[in-house]
Amino acid sequence: MHELSIAMSIIEMAEQEAELRGGAQIVGIHLKVGDLAGVVKEALISSYELATQETALAGSRLLIESVPVRGHCSTCEKDHTQRSIQSFCCPQCGTPSLDITQGKELEVVALEIVQ
Amino acid sequence: MTEPRLVEVRKNVLKQNDLVARALRARFREAGVFVVSLVSSPGTGKTAFLEKTLTLMRQHYRVAAVVGDLATENDAIRLSRSQAPVKQITTGTLCHLEAAMVEKALEDWNLRDLDFLFIENVGNLVCPSSYDLGEDLRAVLMSVTEGEDKPLKYPTIFNSADIAIITKTDLAEAVEFDWDEAYRSIQSVRPHMELLRVSSKSGEGMDAFVQRLLKAPCTMPSTRQELNH
């Protein structure tokens, strides 16, 4: 359960960004989480709610966009979306492939702020 | 109240860890030390495997280990029987090692005095996958007693590792371990993954592991990619 440490990193990052913008109040954080990032969405949201209690971020929303894993198939020479993270092979031709092009993201994309 | 405004940030949440890991990797390379991290669930036999590895290798190489656990110094005490320098990191409630903890543990060691450094992560097959520790090689261990489908249950960590090591092979027959199924599971989550079988008890496969590490520094100096968050 490392979601609490991740939630705290997100909060720290958001607070720094808000301060750079003249102490704006954050009402929402948009986050991208890849399916291979090793983060459980529900656990992250409850950790976030817990960690923001009694802080300036209390009541703010964490909006998570899941990013599916995509890979490049050297046989088809095309990118494809993985059907599952338990089977790394091309859904078209079945070639095993580990050339992952997306799906490991753990990124604060944007903040919703009020001045 | 005014309408909320959306401002773009685009920042990697684990940036701080990745920066420390990158700096560590640069230090390791400069000092010429090859760094191997071990991850597995609790009870796979990481410590027994590492104790055996340190004992075997220290006859010819300068080896050391840092070992992470939530509590107790037991593993460090066990590993120090190998006579190699060992340092314990107790993480308290944290379920994984982070790069900064490794950096701190190495504070008073001169890396130039080492050829190989081993980092034993906290026993956990989930959380360590997200944290780059600056290692050159990440080994994921699974024992024959854990079941052949372990990789399918924890694909992320197997996917983040470079080599899989199946431990406790001396028990394989007793638990009717299905090697073919285990290979299929591993290859499914990590195509072309290198695989070794070891028994810390009988010594099977230990030489193969050591040989694998010996060829690593000269043939592929730190080819491990920075984790792409």
Structure overview:
The complex is a heterodimer of chains A (115) and B (229). Chain A is of the alpha+beta class. Chain A has a single domain, classed as hypothetical protein PF0899 fold (2-Layer Sandwich). In chain A, the strands form two sheets. Chain A has a three-stranded mixed beta sheet with strand order 2-1-6, with helices on one face. In chain A, helix 2 links the parallel strand 1 and strand 2. The longest helix of chain A has 18 residues. Chain B is α/β, with parallel strands linked by helices and 229 residues long. Chain B is globular. Classes of the chains: A alpha+beta (115), B alpha/beta (229). The interface between A and B is large, with 39 and 39 residues. Strand 6 of chain A pairs antiparallel with strand 1 of chain B, so a sheet runs across the interface.
Q: What is the average of the pLDDT values of chain A?
A: 93
The secondary structure category of chain A is alpha+beta
Radius of gyration of chain B: 18 Å
Class computed from helices, strands and strand pairing of chain B = alpha/beta
CATH architecture designation of chain B: 3-Layer(aba) Sandwich
Hey, roughly how much beta strand do the residues of chain A contain? 25-35%
Tally of separate helices of chain A: 2
Largest interface comes to:
A-B, 39 and 39 residues
Summed up, the domain count of chain B is: 1
Q: Strand order, main sheet of chain A: write it out.
A: 2-1-6
Order of helices and strands of chain A: HEHEEEEE
Please tell me the total number of domains of chain A. Answer: 1
Largest sheet of chain B: 7 strands, parallel
Mean pLDDT of chain B: 92
Oligomeric state as shown: heterodimer
* Low-confidence spans of chain A: none
Per-chain topology:
The complex is a heterodimer of chains A (115) and B (229).
Chain A (H helix, E strand, L loop, with lengths): L2 H18 L4 E10 L6 H12 L8 E7 L2 E4 L4 E4 L18 E3 L3 E9 L1
Parallel strand pairs in A: 1-2
Antiparallel strand pairs in A: 1-6, 3-4, 3-5
Helix pairs in contact in A: 1-2
Chain B lengths: L4 E8 L2 H17 L2 E6 L6 H12 L5 E7 L4 H7 L5 E5 L8 H7 L10 E5 L16 E7 L6 H4 L1 H6 L2 E5 L11 H11 L4 E4 L8 H14 L10
Parallel strand pairs in B: 2-5, 2-6, 3-4, 3-5, 6-7, 7-8
Helix pairs in contact in B: 2-3, 2-8
